[in-house]
Amino acid sequence: MPSHRVFRVSLGVFAATIAFAILGTLSLFIPPVRDFFLPYYETLVAMPTWTYMALLPVVSLALYWDQLGVRRSLLFLIAASVLGASAELLGTNTGFPFGEYFYTDRLGAKIFGDVPYFIPTSWYALGILSYDLGGRLGRGRLARALWTAVFMIAWDVSLDPAMNQGGGTFVFWEYPGGGAFYGMPWVNWLGWAVTSVAIAFAFEALGGMEPAGNGLTERWAPVVYALNVFFPASICLLYGLPSAGVIGLVVLGALLYAVHRRTPFVGTLAPAS
Question: 115 has which bridge partners?
Fold first, then answer.
């Protein structure tokens, strides 16, 4: 199957998973529906979450496959995943560079019992999207790497409150010492910045990538990125963290507006064949 078709199929399932999670949460506000599904609540939350995490790297890999080719696609996946895993293992064991934190068991089995296997590939998935979008705003390696970090941190604006508090019901990671930003210490974003810059420079060392390199990536990278920000923002809005959701959506809107001014994508969203 051609990569652009893999992208369309995986993106469709990915978007449907997000819609299922949001609509399922909304249904809990209807007492008869809530009472019926409450015994299955954990399964109904875990199923779309795991599906989302599994599809996350597949969507990005398929999106950039034609532009990068087989070799660079796999090298980008491996490099970003290894750097992400290394940073997370260092962080969960030493507190550097993200601050003291640990993962709960909500995301399944963990590398060395510390970092869920889903996490390293999520660094690749959002890393390559941020690297592409960052390259549309920043010229030169350093500027592009810094913009990559900005897009990655923007994803975390709503992600961290949603995942470390979960409305008090479904927590994926925790900061034992707490923090000023919805239970997260500010130093966490420094860790995100350092890791994201490292991933961007790794991509550069592997040959780099032209921003908006073909019709598919030009049109759809902002949309895929937006879906990834919208999901945790919607969780914040639905689970009693409205300000975190609003902040996340405002930051998303500002970044997408900046990208659209450089490489317009709205109105040209049909996948290239």
Answer: 111
pTM of the model: 0.92
Roughly how many angstroms between the first and final C-alpha of the chain, as a whole number? 12
In the DSSP assignment, the letter for residue 184 is: B
Alpha carbon dihedral 81, 84, 87, 91, in 10-degree steps, equals -120
DSSP 95: -
Q: CA-based angle 76:99:55, to the nearest 5? A: 35
In 3D, which of 140, 124, 118, 54 has the Cα closest to residue 83? 124
- Tokens 């390696």 correspond to 141
Helix (H, G, I), strand (E, B), or coil: what is residue 271?
coil
pLDDT digits 0-9 by tens, 168-191: 567 899 999 999 999 999 999 999
Give domain limits for the chain.
3-262
Here the tokens at position 153 are 């941190």
Interaxial angle between packed helices 242-262 and 118-137, expressed in degrees from 0 to 180 and rounded to the nearest 10? 50
